Amino acid sequence: MTKKIKTAVIGVGHLGRFHAQKYAGLDNSELVGVVDLNEQSARKVADEVGTRAYTDYRELIGKVDAVSVVTPTESHLKIGADFLEHGIDVLVEKPIAMSTAEAEKLIAAADCSNAILQVGHLERFNGAVMALEGRVKTPLFIESRRLSPFPNRSTDVDVILDLMIHDIDIILSLVNSDVESVDAVGIPVVTNNVDITNARLRFTNGCVADVTASRVSRERQRTITIYQPETNISIDYAAQHITIAQITPDEEAGYARLVDTELDIIKSDSLLEEIKAFLSCSETGRRPLVSGHEGLVALEVASRIQDAVAKSIRTALR
């Protein structure tokens, strides 16, 4: 019988509760406990998944092999480093940290102890994104939209780190080139942070990405379209659906047409697949699909977008 990986979830708010449910349901996981500063929340989730409740994550050091850190971003470095320095594998929710300097410290802590550090960019585990493998070859232009109504929950970061960073990570993985320049605009609407933003990323290989994220829209939209020679590929993240538009010559009409093909996608529970991949890395020592390095690079680009937005606001207010 395979030895179970002793796991825990640190922070069991809205998303952390789902992490706990996934760990509790996996055969290779023994959910040792859940942690939250709010004792009532910790007990409620612990009772739901049949484990122990804690209010101090340090009590779990030495008792677990792997943890999810699903706490406010400002605490990722402290909590993540405490576990990594003890050789405990960490899945930290996105963004990896508040700053690139903090992200580098987390990566160093993981390297020092040879522990796994995975970053929770769960769109990488979306069935449609996984089905893209081998289909994106020479992207020339990418258009991404991630729009949603205001979540009516606490938001400790702006929309760039809250939502757009998912698309930044996906785009970076598709283009495989350095970002040459960033132009961006954005404004606060409901919170004191930027709630809607648009960024244009220019890559050194010539590709351009137009990225919009909003948490104050009337409708939900989570789409990305990749334009490359002879094909356009459109993804609906929520529906886990791909449409490929193939450029097909029409001799009779005298011009080319776009012929759509709908792909059959095996839909996935993105969070479950992410956690399963994390536990597999914990068991084998394999490098995660979204390692600390990928999390750092996405954060670096997000920081450049934040700087460009701040500059545009200052210019507009002059």
Provide the spatial order of strands within the biggest beta sheet: 8-9-10-7-11-12-13-14
Give helix % range.
25-40%
Mean pLDDT: 95
What summary fits the major beta sheet?
8 strands, mixed
Count every helix, treating DSSP H or I runs of 4 or more residues as helices.
8
* CATH hierarchy: architecture of the largest domain: 2-Layer Sandwich
Topology order in helix (H) and strand (E) letters: EHEHEEHEHEHEHEEEEEEEHH
- What is Rg? 21 Å
Named CATH topology of the largest domain: Dihydrodipicolinate Reductase, domain 2
Q: How many strands appear in the DSSP assignment? A: 14
CATH superfamily of the largest domain: Dihydrodipicolinate Reductase, domain 2
N- and C-termini, Cα separation = 68 Å
Structural class: alpha/beta
**CATH class descriptor of the largest domain:** Alpha Beta
Low-confidence stretches: none
What percent of residues are in strands?
25-35%
Shape: globular
- The total domain count is 2
